[in-house]
Specification:
48% strand, 18% helix, alpha+beta, five-stranded antiparallel β-sheet, 116 residues, elongated
Length: 116
């Protein structure tokens, strides 16, 4: 399966979850673009209103989980028909030699017309 990758240079700080979170926050715009590149699974016109990194949890050796929260909204063509929600999600990453490496799978897209 194909994957999208993001590598962030965080420096050689000790790999404690609190320090990793602090370093990742300095790359928050890049992480938001990477993690929320395609929000059409939420709604075809979904847009991110607020994004924030929440917590880093150590899994084992060089593997960590990053939780993040984002608020999104979408309109159905008129102002009185709007949907908005807040999501909390988690992504795994690896940290070694001062680099954080994120990978997300690329899923094939299809439409209803493709299924007919």
């Amino acid at each position: 399966m194909a994957v999208r990758q993001l590598e962030l240079k965080l420096g050689a700080a000790p790999a404690t979850p609190a320090l990793l979170l602090r370093c990742l926050r300095s790359h928050e715009p890049a992480l938001q673009d990477f993690l929320l590149e395609d929000m059409t699974h939420l709604h075809p016109s979904a847009k991110c209103d607020v994004f924030g990194l929440q917590e880093v949890v150590a899994e084992n050796d060089d593997a960590y989980h990053l939780s993040y929260r984002f608020a999104w909204s979408a309109t159905y063509g008129c102002a009185d028909r709007e949907v908005s929600e807040t999501e909390v999600q988690m992504v795994q990453f690896r940290y070694a030699n001062g680099m954080a490496r994120f990978e997300l799978p690329i899923f094939p897209t299809s439409s209803t017309a493709d299924e007919l």
